[in-house]
């Protein structure tokens, strides 16, 4: 089955009009998905089901049906279904100027919109609109399957968390990402910023601090000895190089298309604001500066201000979706 957009609408078709299946005794979600010809993960996402082994008799399930128009309209979304915390590429029909979804307005350039799916987006159906074409509908989002962890902070460390300074620092990072530009500054898949890659805390991990919920991990923590070189994963322009309160020695690159990346807790910085860098250029060195307990690199990627899984940019599939638009901008 082609992985075109399984959208439960045709020109404003209401969700209530989608087929509904009432679970019978002994049925499993796998069997229901197979009977309707719907991928298991799509059926689970459409109904906000996190554990595919837990459904109950009498439960009403919305069955997402593939409309006949997506191929004719030229609307495609990759990956399908979009996943919490990972970017999705919308290949949109001519005339579409932006995609409005998740309370965000994502500009479309040369037929492509790179859409962030916030990590806290509820799995299931979400409304979206293709501006400039007058089309509205609903989009499935699948759960990211993120783990959870509790971080124990000492009273001394907890006392250092100045909320106002944290907010001010985040605002400065967003400003450093620069304005949205219609072209990517990079070509091809990204590389990891360290030569030796060992994750100690993955993106999207749901966190609590001293037993109290605290959101999710907005980046990837990579193990590294102090002084380990940190390299640019892709071409970009330095938007910030400074010492910050929480993140310590910090470098931020902006890469076009609303994408920026951050490298934090550095012991030394090797670049200056406004400097152009290429894939593999030295940015600085791993350290333990800022509010940390030991040396490591916190690597963060934001798309239109939303933290997103950095590993998505390393995978060739993302670039393969963006490459036609990038080529047309040369």
Order of helices and strands: EHHEHEEEEEEEEHHEEEEEEEEEEEEH
Residues in helix, %: 10-25%
Instruction: Characterize the biggest β-sheet.
Output: 10 strands, antiparallel
Structure classification: alpha+beta
Strand content: 25-35%
The termini sit apart by 34 Å
Estimate the global geometry from the Cα principal axes: globular
What would CATH call the architecture of the largest domain?
Answer: Distorted Sandwich
Cα-atom radius of gyration? 21 Å
Count the strands?
Answer: 22
Q: DSSP helix count?
A: 6
Write down the CATH class of the largest domain. Answer: Mainly Beta
Unreliable stretches (pLDDT < 50, length at least 5) are 1-17
Supply the number of structural domains. 2
CATH topology of the largest domain: Glucose Permease (Domain IIA)
The overall pLDDT, averaged over residues, is 83
Looking at the chains present, what oligomeric state does this protein adopt?
single chain
Can you tell me the CATH superfamily of the largest domain? Answer: Glucose Permease (Domain IIA)
């Amino acid at each position: 089955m082609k992985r075109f957009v399984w959208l439960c609408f045709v020109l404003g078709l209401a969700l209530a009009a989608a087929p509904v299946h009432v679970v019978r005794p002994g049925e499993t979600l796998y069997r229901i998905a197979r009977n309707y010809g719907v991928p298991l993960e799509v059926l689970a996402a459409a109904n906000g089901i996190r554990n595919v082994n837990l459904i109950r008799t009498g439960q009403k399930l919305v069955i997402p049906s593939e409309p006949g128009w997506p191929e004719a309209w030229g609307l495609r979304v990759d990956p399908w279904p979009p996943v919490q915390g990972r970017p999705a590429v919308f290949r949109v029909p001519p005339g579409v100027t932006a995609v409005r979804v998740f309370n965000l307005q994502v500009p479309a350039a040369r037929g492509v919109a790179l859409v962030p799916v916030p990590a806290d987006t509820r799995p299931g159906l979400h409304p979206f609109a293709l501006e400039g074409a007058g089309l509205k509908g609903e989009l499935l989002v699948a759960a990211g399957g993120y783990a959870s962890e509790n971080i124990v902070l000492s009273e001394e460390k907890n006392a250092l968390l100045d909320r106002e300074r944290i907010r001010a620092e985040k605002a400065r990072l967003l400003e450093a990402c620069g304005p949205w530009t219609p072209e990517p500054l990079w070509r091809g898949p990204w590389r990891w910023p360290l030569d030796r890659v060992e994750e100690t805390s993955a993106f999207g991990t749901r966190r609590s601090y001293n037993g109290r919920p605290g959101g999710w991990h907005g980046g990837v923590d990579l193990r590294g000895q102090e002084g380990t070189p940190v390299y640019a994963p892709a071409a970009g322009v330095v938007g910030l190089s400074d010492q910050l309160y929480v993140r310590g020695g910090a470098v931020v690159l902006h890469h076009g298309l609303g994408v920026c990346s951050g490298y934090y807790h550095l012991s030394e910085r090797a670049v200056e604001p406004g400097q152009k860098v290429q894939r593999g250029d030295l940015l600085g060195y791993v350290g333990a500066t800022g509010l940390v307990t030991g040396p490591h690199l916190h690597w963060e990627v934001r798309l239109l201000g939303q933290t997103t899984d950095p590993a998505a940019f390393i995978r060739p599939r993302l670039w393969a979706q963006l490459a036609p638009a990038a080529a047309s901008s040369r």
